[in-house]
Specification:
The chain is an alpha/beta fold. The protein contains seven helices and 14 strands.
Length: 257
């Protein structure tokens, strides 16, 4: 059977109001790379969203946490428990920044012994899960220690730009056929360090991926209808831009067409 790389968006909510009122789900993303199953940023509701979509947490090989804000880590403890069958099987790897473990830890101390190991994410780090590798090229500008990712499977390379304030060097650190980008704000200038739609447009124009997927929407983005914004960005950048939806599956084989 031919192996595939598929991203399932368990939730597309970003920012507090959208998450706490669950206007959109906030479950993070499930990465099925061939036979390797990885969970990224299990926010509130992740377990419910995963089981609803018949995704089995006991099959996970890794959980990756980009940073310790609740919309990204709200379900990390229950997902560690689910990955390890309630701690009865010591398995899987958890990747997280140091401040998610050492300073006001969001992973409960007793659960830190459940995975096979915990690896600390650092700027410029390179990591491996089975035949998948990923990098954390630059520390983002966000109130807590935060990293984005470049994932490399045997078939594809793609980047995911997690929450950050825009800075001029940011696009230079990311590459690949696909770019997933967290776009919380419709316009720049918010008090919290998040990317806005014009900044996302600039990043897409510089990186020039085959496809860009917008996700992690705050209230201003959601009210502006992200699917219409994505269509407009496609016309303006020449890159195929998609607005993620809760439960959306994206097969990276689409990049080859």
């Amino acid at each position: 059977m031919e192996l595939t790389d598929v991203i399932t968006f368990l939730g597309t909510a970003g920012a507090r109001v959208v998450v706490t009122r669950q206007f959109l789900a906030s479950g993070g993303a499930w990465l099925s790379f061939g036979n390797t199953q990885i969970l990224l940023d299990p926010g509130p509701g992740c377990l419910v969203q995963a089981t609803k979509r018949k995704l089995d947490p006991s099959k996970l090989e890794a959980i990756i946490l980009s940073h310790k804000h609740l919309d990204h880590c709200g379900d990390i403890n229950i997902m560690i428990e689910a990955m390890t069958d309630g701690g009865t099987k010591r398995r899987g790897v958890v990747f997280a920044p140091a401040d998610a473990l050492n300073q006001d830890p969001v992973i409960l101390t007793y659960l830190q012994a459940y995975p096979e190991k915990i690896e600390i994410l650092t700027e410029g780090g390179r990591y491996r899960v089975s035949d998948v590798t990923f990098e954390t090229p630059i520390r983002h500008r966000h109130p807590v220690e935060t990293y984005g990712f470049i994932f490399r499977t045997p078939r594809h390379t793609f980047s995911w730009i997690i929450d950050t304030k825009y800075f001029d060097e940011l696009p230079h650190y990311y590459t690949g056929e696909l770019l997933v980008i967290n776009v919380v704000r419709l316009k720049p200038g918010a008090p919290i360090d998040h990317l806005s739609l014009p900044e996302a447009k600039q990043i897409i124009k510089e990186i020039k991926p085959k496809v860009a997927i917008l996700t992690h929407f705050g209230m201003t983005m959601w009210r502006a209808k992200p699917w219409e914004l994505a269509k407009k960005l496609t016309e303006e950048t020449g890159v195929s831009v998609i607005a993620a939806r809760d439960g959306m599956k994206f097969d990276l084989a689409r990049l080859e067409k």
